[in-house]
Structures are given as C-alpha cells and as structure tokens.
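Minimal example, chain plus zinc ion.
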Amino acid sequence: MSALIDQLKDLLGPTGYLEGADVEAKASSGWSHVGNPPLVLRPATTNEVSQIMKLCHEAGQSVVAWGGLTGLVESARAVEGELALSLERMHAIEEVDELAGTATVQAGAVLQTVQEEIEKHGLILPLDLGARGSATIGGNVATNAGGNRVIRYGMMRDMVLGLEVVLADGTVLSSLGKMIKDNAGYDLKQLFIGSEGTLGIVTRVVVRLRRKPDSQDTAFVAVDSFDKLPKLLDLMDRRLAGTLSAFECLWQDFYKLLTNEPAPHTPPVEQDYPYYVLIEAMGANQQKDSERFELALEDAFEAGLIVDAVLAKSQSERDKMWAIRDDVGQVAQNWPIFTFDISLPVKDMEAYVTEMKDRLSSAYPEHTAMIFGHLGDGNLHVIAGVGDDSKDARRGVEACVYEPLRARGGSVSAEHGVGLEKLPYLAYTRTPEEITLMRTLKNALDPKGILNPGKIFSAQPLRSAAE
Ligand code: ZN
C-alpha cells in the first residue's frame, strides 16, 4: 500500500492530500462517524479523480467519497485502510444559464453557497435542508437528498439534468446535458443518484433551477387530532392552487423540546396541542397570495381542522418559525439517541406511531420519542432515547421502530439512505429480487468492489430476511 500512497501523493502534490492529525481534524468536522483513513485525497479536477481511481483500481484499493460529512447513516465511513476522497477543492459554480434555467456546479460546492449564488440570478435551486451550510451538491446527488420542499419540487433526483461521474476504473462518464426531455436510451445518471458513492464518484452536476417566487406566506398552526392532519394538507393544497411549498409536522413532545429552555425559541402558539404544522406557500403576487393564504386558513378553522394559528407578518417572524423547525440539534438534550428516517402511507401513520410508541413504552418505560417530519411526503423522523447507546439498546429500539413499519410496507429510509446503519434492515423494504439486481449492477460497474464497499448491502447474498 505504501507504494500506492507515494504514487497518489506524487500525483496530487502537497495540497492534494491530508494525513495524520489533519485527517483527524477533517474527520471530526462533520456530524457522523467517518473513520480515520490513512489518507484523505483532495483532487482539484475531474482528471485527477480519474487518475486516482485508475491507480486504486489497479491496486485493488478501496475509496470512500467524502462530501460535507453531514450524512446520518454512516455512508461516508472509511473502514480498515480505506482511503477517503474529498471533493472539497472542486467547489466552483461553473455556469448559471438563466435562459435554460440550469446551473453547472462542481460536486464539492456547498449547497447554501450555490443557493445564494443562484438567487442573484432571480432563480432558485429548490433543494433545502437543515445541513445546507455544510452539505455539498455532490453529496446531495449521491444520497438523493430530500428536505423541506419535496412536497412542491421533489427530491434531488428531480433537479438533476446532467451528471459527470468517475467510475471505479477511472473512466469519466460525462452526460452534462441541460435538456429536461432526453429519452435517448437508458437514463444512466439515475443509477448514480442515491447510490451513496457505491457505483461512481460524482464530480459535476447540471441542476434544474426554478423561477424565484415573489411571494412567501408562512403560518404555524395547531391541530387537535391526527386524522385532521391529512385533511388539513388536502384543504391547503386545494386552496393554494399549486403554491403549497412546505407542510412540516411536529408532534407535541418535539415542539415542547424546541420551545422550552434551554432551547432559545419562544412558542408561536400554545404548547397544549398534540400536533403542530409549519405551512408555507410561495407564489407570484404577495398581496393576492397573502389574501388567498389567509382565506385558506380561515376555511381550515371553520372546518375544525386547526385550533390555533399564527401568521408570520415579517421576514423575521418567518425566520423564527423556520428556526424552530430547523433546530433539530435540540434532540441532543436526550442524548444518547437513535435517529430514524422512515416513510409509510399517511393513512397508516397514526396506527403505526401508536404501535411504535406502545412497543417503546413496554420495552423502555423511561424512553423519549421525538417525532416530526414531512407529512406530505409520508416521511417521519423519529428520534428515540433510552439512556443507553449499547448495541443491544440500538437493536431493541430498532425492533420497536422497524417491526411495525415492516408490517405496513413502509421504507426504512425515506431520505437519509442506508449506509452501514440501515443495512441490516434493507430487506424489510426491498425484495430479494431487488437486492440481487442491486448487487448485479454493483458488480458490473465496480467488479473489484473498491467504491465505498460494504455500504447499502453486504457483499454476500442474503440468507434470511434480516442480514
Ligand atoms: Zn427530513
């Protein structure tokens, strides 16, 4: 391996890699466990990524791509001598094409930087999530990121028009097209979106942009029973004529955690209700849109779907509402915690949550369970604490969360991916035939198994339902 390391260092020059204490500093900069690789490669060009992969392919050396290190499922963890390849030096926004409504961006660009640059052109990249200040565009593609505006604009997959990817053997696959319609054979880019770095390394992306909305209306509302949540969503969606952009639900425990000391937020509505929703619409005419938004909320009151509501009357009030929703870090108050990211049909959600909570209560009477999520996408985040972070506790809590989910045909990962953390449960959501085809694709694109090996599924075929 030392010969390969020397070759890689020669290739990249002194600014092109990190080792020793610099690796430790880099590895601890994010939220997740990413291991302690002997070398972090920092290529500056697609050609350098290609040269790195050629050398590593020849030597059978495994490589883990690193973006902003904000993932939550250990997708970026480098284990046992695996090298990390950080795209951090490839962060240029190469082009914003206002007419086509596209931007060409290098993989290491930070999401928030890209958002801000694009807004200067009167356009938006609608992807938005709490980790925007660190997460990178390449990581967003590799994990098919979701976030707060999926209900209106879809996930990252829906915003990618073109990709440049370096394959395991160093081949550069460039399909940086800007066309929305392009049915010339297989849509190969889709293979790499959400593949968590196991099929190729994303180096450049053409993203689809949208016109920047001229109006924004935001409200924080309280709801007194679960069955009213989907009815409220339906009513707002109908009344707002396609402008509904966020419908973020918070269960009472989570709302109280966020709006009581030591959290810095004041509650916009009283804390006595079981459910809260942050509703937002984005349109084209502030005055008319605000009238329509308020009328929709009045209808919701009259229909008994909401029991309390506060409208944001200024940007600072809107920011305060979003600051509550985005302050997920407050769950650290319940440390140690286990985080979940599940999806299931909305009609099954209430029964699911009841069963999951019952299971947690009987196994761990002292547990905490914070629930919030993107109800319109059928996506719930569950953050459970049982005062113990041993492997046994983790498996116990996972059983409480996943068994009732499996019975209802839900997904063990709505938006965070599988990585190492959810790998034992992939078969709860995917059939053996689906997993076999995933392995076939992996073997075809990466026959030596050097790209982020061991993530999503294990190299060996499944023997039982849960590996
Ligand atoms: Zn989310």
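The chain has four domains: 2-86, 93-211, 215-329, 335-445. Confidence is low (pLDDT under 50) at residues 462-467.
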